[in-house]
Backbone:
């Protein structure tokens, strides 16, 4: 407000600066002393005596002055605070009133801002929960994941750690405080403590040190210790239970410690229950068992364990990496029986240290989320540009009002305050709307998100998100509120020219053009990125997976070890099951395998391959899988030659199938059939290769066809190299029609008839697995496409607004043109051309931007170049068309201008 | 009433029996102003000197009544105690 009489007396009473305040106190005290002195002099004292007497009566002048001043300063501070709050409250009230009057403006600005901030908040929340926040461990920032990359072996990019490495690094490392290893797998709880039904559960075999590394303390009972690890070499007899399993399966039984449960048919004693928040990174481990290990055992190349280390305080990941690289380089002398210098050189074997969080989340997810965050930030900018445009229009329409106000005495400061209050009120409301949008958006996003997205359960709209919303709204509010003040709105010429100030509006039009051009440019970048991802996804869908997923159901089953101790027993089970399932109505084929295509493990195992060389054999690490007869047939994986059938259980004449890529690697340009492979660290027997499969995408559609040996079932169960694994198999069933799920109950019945302790899990159609393997990419694509669509819509609104404004401004000119004989088409063309000119500039800048930025999409793309000309052209065409469409309505309005009316007005 | 006048008034009323350190009056006055019991304003004395004048506000009057009540109860109680002792 310009003039507020209620403020005047206060200005008199309380001085504004601290200095004036001190002067005032001095004046008051001086008045007192002088008054006293005069009185005393009037009573007959000399001036000196009077002064001394007055001072004496007054006491400690300095102390009293200081105290009085302190009180006054305090008063001033309070006053200022009250004044500020009062001004703010008054201006906000006024702003709310004036916003309520301008309903269309407020609604448009509010919705646009809320949408922009809400979208940004939702994605920020996901980014924060998954990428930014440390893992939920005490001092989680000091945790690192250790692994062993072997770049020399293409087929297996990363190995785990071996037991002897854990002991060695624990002893030798100065950067690591402690180190633990574990292996996770699915297992079957077969009974115990009165609960008989079998249940599949994730179990972890862990070193005792892991608990210290992760800072886990037991809720009940005790943790595992090094003795448990030692004893596990002979027998597995203790386990820890997760809080979840304890509550769910055993009803939170307070006397569970010391009781016995059955795992795979073997009894184990419950030694402790872990608290609800104790977990391995990103998993739901239900049982924790001691890993069989002994520091005195000889080193063995068994690189299969996940490893987590805790760095000492102040140590960085780079420090730890440097030290472990140096330590690993000495392995050929420290462990000469396992590593040779030649092997280390050939494979590039080393130890990699990564922050545990990066390891859990993965670089691709991190990157995708940052890209999405970038995209929503761009949408927010475009939205803010639209609102800025609305504000500029509003300033334009209120120029007369503002000129009048400043003429009657409103200062620049008052006016700036007014605009700021208005935009802050608006952005405050927008923040509330944004939180609502983010909340709803997150619920939708979390349900749509691929289930394998790490840390998804940690995504919540928390304080960080609220802080982000407030920060974004505040930034937008301040920027929009300062806009009019920056542009020098107080234009008294308005009054003189009777409301026709032409120069100011031309300058403001330029500002609006800049806004629209930047919107266009940003929208093009988003559009091109979304287009590239759509193209990538289509390319992936076009990839030949090497198998036929239609009408195939998949499920898992696991045989308890205790009752299938020999290969013959297991093989017999699968053969019987196979023939019974094939006999079911609607089933055409059935097969079992260690893994399905697309989801094979990257781990490799040492094998000896019969290739011409100095020794006639070559050792290498290869991926292997066990399959039963029917596996290739059911998945319709083409096999050249033949796959072993159920009759070939005789080890002496065993045969195996290899993938085409495997054959090409070891026997390039030769016939692989008839050659041989020894499994599992080169133990006999020697398998004759009897068939070669076509290219199958074993690791995912975006990965090259795998190099795999498919062994029959027998060797794994008899080979001591595989350590008491439960016999876990994936089953594939080809049905005659698309109603695959209808045969599942029958299959369950058949399995239960054969062995009621074998649970069936993970039932899913193969086509769904195919879709899941694309889920992360399609999720990213969907979000980016949504962002691009929003950007497109907002830009269209932006250009529509500017062109409408231009048409309104040029009514007079258009009227004259029409009076002089311009035809409707010409007038429309004039308007559309102007819109296209803006679009052209925007597109040109946007193309440059897209060329510079789409490269960051990198690994998210598949089979398309980041600068694919077709995509860029399509995005350009879409944007230009939209600009033309957006200008169509203003153009029609322009052509309907009545020349007579405009000329008269 | 300005600070000096307040002192004069006290001197007159008490017949100079109540001696106070004059400087201590000012922090007291300013604190009362801060609490809203007093209103302060610069003005001129009858001899045309610039001085800071204080006036009791409505809140100040309420406070004064309350304090007086408290005081009279206190003196009453003390009086009773003293009377009993004297008897």
Residues:
């Amino acid at each position: 407000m310009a003039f507020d009489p209620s403020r005047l007396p206060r200005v008199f009473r309380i001085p504004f600066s601290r200095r004036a305040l001190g002067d005032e106190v001095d004046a008051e005290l001086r008045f007192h002393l002088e008054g006293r002195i005069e009185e005393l002099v009037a009573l007959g004292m000399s001036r000196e005596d009077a002064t001394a007497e007055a001072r004496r009566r007054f006491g400690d002048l300095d102390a009293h002055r200081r105290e009085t001043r302190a009180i006054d300063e305090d008063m001033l501070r309070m006053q200022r605070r009250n004044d500020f709050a009062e001004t703010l409250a008054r201006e906000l009230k006024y702003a709310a009133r004036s916003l309520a009057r301008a309903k269309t403006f407020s609604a448009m600005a509010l919705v646009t801002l809320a949408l922009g901030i809400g979208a940004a908040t939702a994605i920020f929340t996901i980014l924060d929960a998954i990428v930014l926040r440390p893992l939920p461990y005490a001092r989680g920032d000091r945790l690192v994941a250790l692994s062993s990359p072997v770049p020399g072996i293409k087929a297996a990019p990363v190995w785990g750690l071996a037991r002897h490495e854990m002991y060695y690094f624990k002893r030798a490392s100065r950067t690591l405080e402690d180190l633990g290893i574990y292996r996770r797998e699915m297992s079957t709880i077969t009974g115990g403590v009165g609960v008989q039904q079998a249940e599949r559960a994730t179990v972890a075999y862990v070193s005792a040190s892991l608990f210290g590394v992760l800072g886990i303390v037991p809720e009940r009972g005790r943790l595992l210790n090094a003795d448990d690890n030692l004893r596990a070499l002979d027998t597995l007899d203790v386990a820890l239970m997760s809080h979840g399993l304890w509550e769910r399966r055993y009803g939170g039984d307070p006397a569970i410690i010391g009781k016995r449960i059955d795992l795979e048919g073997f009894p184990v004693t419950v030694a402790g229950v872990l608290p609800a928040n104790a977990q391995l990174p990103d998993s739901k481990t239900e049982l924790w068992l001691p890993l069989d290990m002994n520091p005195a055992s000889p080193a063995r190349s068994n690189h299969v364990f996940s490893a987590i280390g805790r760095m000492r305080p102040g140590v960085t990941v780079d420090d730890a990496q440097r030290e472990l690289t140096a330590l690993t380089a000495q392995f050929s002398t420290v462990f000469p029986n396992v590593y040779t210098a030649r092997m280390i050189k050939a494979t590039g074997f080393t130890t990699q240290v990564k922050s545990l969080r990066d390891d859990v989340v993965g670089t691709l997810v991190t990157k995708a989320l940052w890209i999405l965050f970038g995209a929503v930030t761009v949408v927010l900018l475009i939205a803010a540009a639209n609102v800025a445009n609305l504000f500029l229009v509003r300033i334009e329409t209120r120029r007369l009002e503002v000129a009048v106000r400043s003429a009657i005495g409103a200062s620049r400061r008052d006016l700036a305050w007014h605009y700021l209050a208005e935009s802050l009120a608006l952005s405050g409301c927008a923040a509330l709307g944004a939180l609502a949008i983010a909340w709803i958006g997150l619920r939708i996003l979390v349900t749509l998100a691929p289930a394998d997205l790490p840390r998804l359960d940690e995504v919540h709209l928390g304080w960080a998100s609220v802080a982000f919303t407030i920060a974004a709204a505040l930034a937008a509010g301040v920027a929009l509120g300062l806009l009019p003040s920056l542009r020098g709105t107080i234009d008294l010429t308005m009054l003189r020219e009777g409301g026709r100030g032409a120069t100011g509006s031309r300058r403001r039009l330029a500002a609006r053009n800049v806004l629209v051009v930047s919107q266009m440019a940003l929208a093009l970048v988003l559009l091109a990125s979304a287009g590239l991802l759509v193209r990538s996804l289509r390319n992936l869908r076009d990839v030949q997976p090497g198998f036929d997923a239609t009408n195939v159901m998949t499920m898992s089953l696991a045989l308890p070890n205790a009752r299938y101790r020999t290969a013959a027993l297991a093989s017999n089970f699968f053969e019987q099951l196979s023939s019974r399932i094939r006999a079911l109505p609607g089933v055409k084929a059935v097969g079992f395998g260690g893994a399905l295509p697309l989801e094979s493990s990257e781990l490799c195992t040492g094998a000896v391959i019969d290739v011409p060389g100095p020794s006639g054999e070559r050792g290498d690490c290869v991926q292997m899988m066990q399959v039963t007869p029917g596996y290739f047939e059911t998945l319709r994986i083409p096999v050249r030659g033949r796959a072993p059938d159920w009759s070939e259980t005789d080890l002496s004449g065993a045969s195996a199938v290899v993938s085409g890529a495997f054959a090409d690697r070891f026997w390039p340009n030769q016939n692989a059939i008839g050659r041989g492979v020894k499994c599992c660290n080169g133990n006999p027997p020697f398998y004759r290769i009897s068939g070669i499969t076509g290219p199958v995408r074993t690791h995912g559609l975006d990965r090259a066809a795998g190099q795999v040996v498919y062994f029959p079932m027998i060797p794994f169960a008899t080979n001591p190299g595989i350590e008491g694994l439960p016999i876990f198999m994936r089953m594939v069933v080809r049905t005659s029609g698309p109603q695959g799920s209808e045969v599942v109950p029958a299959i369950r019945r058949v399995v239960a008839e054969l062995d009621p302790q074998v649970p069936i899990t993970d039932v899913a159609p193969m086509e769904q697995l195919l879709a899941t393997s694309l889920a992360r990419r399609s999720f990213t694509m969907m979000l980016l496409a949504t962002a691009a669509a929003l950007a497109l819509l907002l830009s269209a609104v932006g250009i529509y607004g500017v062109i409408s404004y231009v048409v309104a401004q040029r009514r007079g000119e258009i009227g004259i043109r029409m009076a002089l004989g311009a035809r409707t088409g010409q007038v429309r063309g004039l308007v559309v051309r102007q819109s296209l000119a803006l679009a052209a500039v925007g597109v040109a800048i946007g193309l440059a931007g897209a060329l510079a930025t789409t490269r960051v999409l990198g690994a998210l793309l598949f089979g398309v170049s980041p600068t694919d000309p077709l995509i860029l052209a399509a995005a350009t065409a879409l944007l230009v068309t939209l600009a033309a469409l957006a200008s169509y309505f203003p153009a029609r309005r322009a052509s309907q201008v009545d020349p007579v009316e405009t000329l008269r007005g | 009433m300005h600070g000096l006048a307040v002192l004069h008034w006290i001197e007159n009323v008490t017949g100079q029996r109540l001696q106070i350190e004059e400087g201590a009056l000012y922090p007291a006055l300013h604190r009362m102003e801060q609490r809203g019991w007093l209103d302060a304003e610069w003005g001129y004395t009858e001899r045309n000197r610039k001085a800071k004048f204080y006036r009791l506000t409505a809140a100040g009057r309420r406070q004064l009544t309350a304090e007086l009540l408290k005081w009279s109860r206190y003196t009453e109680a003390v009086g009773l105690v003293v009377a009993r002792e004297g008897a």
